[in-house]
Amino acid sequence: MKDWLKLTKDEKVAARDGAGQFEIKERMNNCLSSVMNLLDGDAKALATAWKLPWGNYLINTPAEIVAYCKGAAVVRD
After folding, report:
1. What single DSSP character describes residue 51?
2. Is there a contact between 72 and 39 (Cβ–Cβ < 8 Å)?
3. How does pLDDT run across 42-74, given as a tens digit for each residue?
4. What radius of gyration do the chain's Cα atoms show?
């Protein structure tokens, strides 16, 4: 999974792909919603998902985020 906080300014601009603020927020909201649905019932993975930087929901797919959160939850056990 790519980390929003480690991207350069140019990479962040490219991730926005010329989209407007509303479209970007919609993409991130949809990704977050998908992640929450996929992690339903896994409290530790959900806690990890809520702690991710908001930009991660723009640059990663829900599947990538879910895999990361489940992996992080296993490591914490």
Report:
1. H
2. no
3. 999 999 999 999 999 999 999 999 999 999 988
4. 13
Residue with tokens 């300014």, as numbered in its chain? 9
What pTM did the predictor assign?
0.87
Q: Check: CB of residue 25 under 8 Å from CB of residue 49.
A: no
Q: Which of 22, 34, 29 is nearest to 64 (CA)?
A: 34
Count of structural domains, the chain: 1
Q: Domain of residue 25: give its range.
A: 7-76
From the list 75, 53, 40, 58, the residue with the least C-alpha distance to 66 is 40
User: Where are the alpha helices (H) located in the chain, listed in sequence order?
Assistant: 9-16, 21-38, 43-51, 56-59, 62-76
Tell me, yes or no, whether 2 lies in a domain.
no
